[in-house]
Amino acid sequence: MKITSSEFVKSAFARDHWVGGGLPEIAFLGRSNVGKSSLINSLLQRKGLARISNTPGRTQSINFFLINGSFYFVDLPGYGFARVSKAKMAGWGRMAEEYLSDRGELMLSVQLIDVRHDPTALDHQLNEWLVFNQKPHLVVATKADKLSGNALIRQIQAIRSAFEKSDVIAYSSISKRGRDELLDRIGAAAKKPHDFS
Ligand code: GTP
Ligand code: MG
After folding, report:
1. Closest-lying ligand to the alpha carbon of 141?
2. What single-letter DSSP state applies at residue 134?
3. Topology annotation, domain 6-190
4. What is the pLDDT along the chain (197 residues), one digit of tens a residue?
């Protein structure tokens, strides 16, 4: 799939701020700092469209980006960052869970994992939830540029066996490894016949 246009549409802090709907949505999920916003920018080849920061927990809202005028990318807040207060974590859980379970427009969930680390309990929980609820999804092992050779192969293998019910794609927002494959998967999901009425 080719990206011909992309624009930031809005940040939502509550359900009634979600975009009007009627177009397919592709969501990006994963723990804080895993590289969700960077992956979105690298897919779109737009450096500062989704905000990147070295402060984990930066993206606190659900951010909608209109792609090719025909579907949305949805950047969800990261989970599992200890410095975010308990009250805020509960808020995250509700907001994201509500979006994931209720949003009819959601055509594909892209779950990001840091290729260097073993998946956390929350990574497993989210993956089990996606599998159990039969949500179309993919696991993307990102920051692949940070490992090389056998170490990379070993880690990807470990992630594949940890998430054996999911497809796993190795990705790097810096080298663009995996970009074409991920864009094709996204294009196919966005084109699936749908009826959101
Ligand atoms: P929150 O919004 O806080 O949940 O974080 P996020 O998941 O959106 O992560 P973000 O894209 O802000 O990236 C976090 C850090 O990881 C930044 O310092 C990025 O530059 C770095 N990073 C992200 N992707 C990659 C990658 O593929 N390779 C390398 N080397 N660094 C990356
Ligand atoms: Mg972010």
Report:
1. 1
2. T
3. Rossmann fold (3.40.50)
4. 999 999 999 999 888 999 997 999 999 999 888 999 999 999 999 988 887 766 655 557 889 999 999 999 999 888 765 455 555 555 556 677 789 888 999 999 999 999 999 998 889 988 998 999 899 999 999 999 999 999 999 999 999 999 999 999 999 999 999 999 999 999 999 998 888 87
Domain boundaries along the sequence of the chain: 6-190
**Cα–Cα distance measured from residue 115 to residue 94, given in angstroms and rounded to the nearest whole number:** 27
d(CA 52, CA 102): 27
Distance 73 CA to ligand 2 centre (A): 13
Cα-to-centroid distance, 16 and ligand 1 (Å)? 28
Q: What is the DSSP string of 156-190?
A: HHHHHHHTTTS-EEE--TTT-TTHHHHHHHHHHHH
